[in-house]
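lol so apparently i was supposed to do this last week
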Amino acid sequence: MSLSNQPQLNPEHQLALSEVIGALSYALDLTEGQPPGHCIRGCWIGFHIGQQIGLSSAELWDLYYTLLMKDAGCSSNAARLCDLYGNDDRATKRDFKTVDTDNIAQMVQFVLTHTGVKGPLAERFKRVLNLARRGEQLATELIQTRCERGAKIAKQLGFSEKVADGIFSLDEHWNGQGKPQGLRGEDIPLFSRIALLSQVIDVFHHVGGPTAALNEIRERRGSWFDPELVDAALALEYDVDFWAALRDDDIGSLVQSIEPEVRALTVDDDLLDNIAEAFSQVVDAKSPFTAGHSERVALYTDVLASKLGIDAARRRWLKRGALLHDLGKLGVSNSILDKEGKLTDEEWREVRLHPVYTEQILSRILPFKEMAIVAGAHHERLDGKGYPKGMVASELTLETRIITICDIFDAITADRPYRGPIPVPEALEIMGRMTGTALDTNCYHVLLECVHEMQLDK
Ligand SMILES: [Fe+2]
Ligand SMILES: [Fe+2]
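anyway here it is w/ fe (ii) ion bound
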């Protein structure tokens, strides 16, 4: 469906679009290495700036979703960023947000403190030199990827060109020194100008409160930022409620309450499918080794669920859970996800947190509570030796068991950083040895049937 049409709704299942996108924006914060709620707070800040400059309700609605979705393309450059800097992509992204890129001393300091810090000295030397010689071009490429991807996802969700353009030009600076196009002044879409300003206010507010945030934007007035917008933000200096909201744990509800009613949408099943699909693509874009993983797991899940006699409505619900099962992987560094060698204990600890993040984010959406538990349990095992909770067989629903078996089937048959893809017959043999302890025997037999019917075992 298109966001321009009010969907037909069953009143009992009304779910606001702002609630779904607001909750899922926490997944985008994870990728950016930002404290939880960064996009939500950015939305609060930018929305107030939009009001200050007199935007109409319809414009504020578009601005609202530009701000919530501004980081939708963020996962697409994580692997490359990690490769270039030889460092945790999330820490690199987080710290880069505090750097004034017009300030050479700050940039040099950033590269020196964030490049190959854990690697051997010679490796570090090479990486720093590479960034010094090709830094400008590499940064443009990284931002271009992120912008294009973010704008594409917004359009895929049915948001307007204005929203997509706002996301695309997020990193352009008022003085023409931004990326990827080097747009200047009012050539930069207004929503991008507001989103960048809001982002910096949130980052500096988090570190040093309102004074630090306002000092920073005064400093970059006319270089990074549109002077008129800086003045609009400065006019909020003595608005106690505005700043108090940024410290409020329940800012999610506050942000939901300001969505302009003019377009306030509730979500139907088609749109929910669409959103789950879009966010699964954000997850899969994070690592070259997980490309297409969520989508394949969702497809296998649907096929198995159908064979097991699960009805169409429940299957549709389960497919969304399968699409989003690895949402929490956005919170794991690519230096771990793409690592070729064995993981250290500490790295394993980080990997084991990803289903926890999945469950936490999905349970922010009230009607997703059950799905959050089902998806968050996809690494649990029947014998209680799984993670993160060590659940036992009696706690594992059929739905979780289906996602788990499909997840493992795809993990074994897909290419991995430390090995090539394993042929299907061999994968099934390995999985056969896991039945009864890790995997559900019945689900396994149904998988065998499906694979045989589709002649994938040849
Ligand atoms: Fe997983
Ligand atoms: Fe997975």
